[in-house]
Amino acid sequence: MRRFLSIISIIITLATQASAADIVCTSGSLGQAVGNDTDATSLKVSGTINAADFDFISKEMTALTTLDLSEASIEAYHGDPIITGRTDFKANTLPEYALAGTNISQLMLPLNLMEIGEGALLGTPIKTINLPASLEIIGNSAFVNCDSLTSVEIKCEIIRDYAFMDCDNLNSVVIGNAADVINKAVFKNCKNLASVSLPSVLSIIGNESFAGCSSLTTVKFPSTLSQIGDRAFYNSGVESIDLTNTNVRKIGQWAFANCDNLRSATLNDNIVTIGQAAFFDCPNLATYNTPASCSTIEQFAHKGNTSLQTDKLLHDNITTIGDYALMGMSHIADIILPESIDSIGSNAFENWVSLTSVYAHNHYTVPRLGQDVWKNVDQSKATLYVNAETCNAFAAADQWSDFNISVTVGTDNTIADSNAVNARFANTILIITADHNIALASVYDSWGRQYAIVQPNSDNITIDTSAWGNNIYIIKVILDNSTTASFKLSRR
Fold first, then answer.
1. What is the extent of the structural domain holding 468?
2. Which of 137, 300, 370, 431 lies in disulfide reach of 345, CB 3.0 to 4.6 Å?
């Protein structure tokens, strides 16, 4: 008898579950069809449903973990205020906040679904999602805080702001070629996101799109890309940037700031604007080139870039170095200021504690300075190299006058001479002689790129320059008695 009652109980239980698990519905009648079986954990719905039915699921079926809508269609709703207090919801759209905060971990969407509404799945434990081919729009914050979601393939045209923000375990994203814009903060703070495939038609990476994606080390930028937004990769794990074969013309403010793993950034020469602090505090960034079209190093642009070399940082089109733009580059000993620079902002060279030489020999006017440009630099131990025409002007100018000022010898000549050092070209051979042993000789081009550094400990050296492409060089010589000489020479 006891066994018979147990079997009857199982049959009743299965029947109850079956009545809630597989339902044919017409819009607005789901609650009636489910009846008392609101504690079901799995539900399959076919037929038509609307926003009122999602309101019922969200409020009454709190134990539901699996929802299959693959054979259902979502119809429009107009009636009493529901879900977010709205009275109208579109057809073929998963309504705004329809399933937010529910326990649904498995969801099969209608095959004709066109839009996932704002916040529709916010905070759910959904593990996987198969987005139908019909989908056109993923709404604002649709998947925010879906911490169990590990991968997603996006085929729709529009991905709105914050769509997948704070999905802690999202690891892999593939975005199909329908989307040409990634909007604001779409993947912000997805800290385990390691793999992203961007669409080949992508034009804009929006503000904060990948900010805080600390596991994202590699990004392949498509050739169609024209703009990278503010804070787009702020505090991300990206290790290198190659924009040489892209159409990028603008990089936003703080775009790659605080990227501790970033080691190289290769930019195309068509970039016109690089926003303030774009590469702020990237301590391992060693390789970088300022695009030829950029005339300003914006404020805070390279503050804290303690590994960066300056050979491709300042070029002949740069007119302005902004406030704090190069602050903290404590490893740099020599800097050549192009003639084009007419303004240097406050604290621009603060904490350049290794600085020994500043070359302003091409300047015929004294650049304007902000406040504390050389703060914490011992200018009494550094030499400012100028030409004879501007020597007195630099010596009379505030902050510039704190340097040891030396006039460069030789102006586009093949032979230059000082009292202690002689330098000349014999065809492509650079010959340097001195009245004491030469402790150090350095050769730069007019951009400040170092071509050679020699420590011969003799009073003469020769350097073969035949492999070098430029004809104008700066030669800096230090003798063993601490005498220094600087020359600008032309190789004819």
1. 409-490
2. 370
